[in-house]
Amino acid sequence: MRKREIISMILAGGHGTRLGILTKHLAKPAVTFGGKYRIIDFVLSNCINSDIDTVGVLTQYEPLKLNQHIGIGIPWDLDRKTGGVTILPPYIKEGQGAWYSGTANAIYQNIKFIEEYNPEYVLILSGDHIYKMDYSKMLEYHKQKEADATIAVLEVPIEEAHHFGIMNTNEEDRIVEFEEKPREPRSNLASMGIYIFNWNKLKQVLIEDNEYHPDSDFGKHIIPRMIHNEDRLFAYRFNSYWKDVGTIESYWQANMELIETLPSFNLYEEFWKFYTNLDHQPPQYVGEVADVKRSILSEGSEVYGNVYSSVLGSGVIIEEGATVRDSIIMAGTIVQSGSVLNRCIVSENCFIGKNVIIGEGENIANFEKPDIYHTGITVVGDQTTVPDNVWIGKNCVVYGNTKFSDYNNGRLESGQSLILEGEES
Prior knowledge:
Layout lengths: L5 E6 L20 E2 L3 E2 L1 H10 L4 E5 L5 H7 L13 E5 L14 H6 L2 H5 L5 E6 L2 E3 L3 H10 L4 E7 L9 E5 L5 E6 L8 E10 H12 L7 H11 L4 E6 L3 E3 L3 H10 L27 E2 L4 E3 L2 E2 L4 E2 L2 E3 L2 E2 L4 E2 L4 E3 L2 E2 L4 E2 L4 E3 L1 E3 L4 E2 L4 E2 L19 E3 L4 E2 L4 E2 L4 E3 L11 E2 L4 E3 L6
Parallel strand pairs: 1-4, 1-6, 4-5, 8-12, 14-17, 15-18, 16-19, 17-20, 18-21, 19-22, 20-23, 21-24, 22-25, 23-26, 24-27, 25-28, 26-29, 27-30, 28-31, 30-32, 31-33
Antiparallel strand pairs: 2-3, 6-11, 7-13, 8-11, 9-10
């Protein structure tokens, strides 16, 4: 038995359906962010910066890219003989499949893994949020309060509190009630999905709750059960940057915030570095007639055209005469000469032909999925080809090896979708 004071379990199996075509072939934590990072890099970096060197990553939906990215944990100094990072997919037992059916159920299914380290505490994290946090300070608070569980909370505007799980506390910040998205919230302390539990207590509650809820969830079942049992639960107030990039708009906005003169979220602080698994790339190259303003250019990107207020991933090529504005262009994508992209997200390894216009026209919500695509952002799925001389409006979705004949006289009007191979976004 390899004793650890605390280990971390990262829930990274989510689909991220509100990101639409961006999560068609990969889990939300594997989506790129800030040019060269993937979303899960931030929580992994937080762990090693907080001196937590034993991490389990629970995967489920489209795990291949995520597994390849994490590997054996070298970029985060988690390639260790004892501890380090371990990928924990669902597995077969007793002759049947055992998919994770809830956040707490996923931890329940990995009790044996946790027991290998016999920890005093378990830190439960979500793999799909952008933030910096020293978990050692939260653990210190947990010990001071002699808590059974500590939940990180963020103060949100009271008018937005109905979108979150809300913790109601007493004067000592002991949690006395949990409300999931209350219509009339009595508090503005929103759960961040970051928990520290005393392991012996959590194990007991997981086993008990599994008898009643095979889809056991921390917010719906475990936390209310512990409050009902009068266990000691405390709120840990966090007052720095935290972003759930769970929608097309919030994902785009969080990337755009990185290019501010004084960004709310600084990727470049020496005392709190973020690490990623990125092969050695050549430096960026900006051509003689290129014009670049207020943008992030990742390693290996080449700009011969115009890039304004945008984020480019590694290996992106913007040809001479092309213009990219207010957009996110992910790794390996080529934008050919004469094309103009405005307020769009282009996924990895896409090919945008010559004289293509994307992101103009009326702001009409997407007809098929208005709840996902409605803020004027057009999204191009990974490995998509857009042929020469095509015009694409706002709130459009394009996916596949499209040809000019797939468009109506070369146009895809605002709010329309073009998805080939018969697959949904």
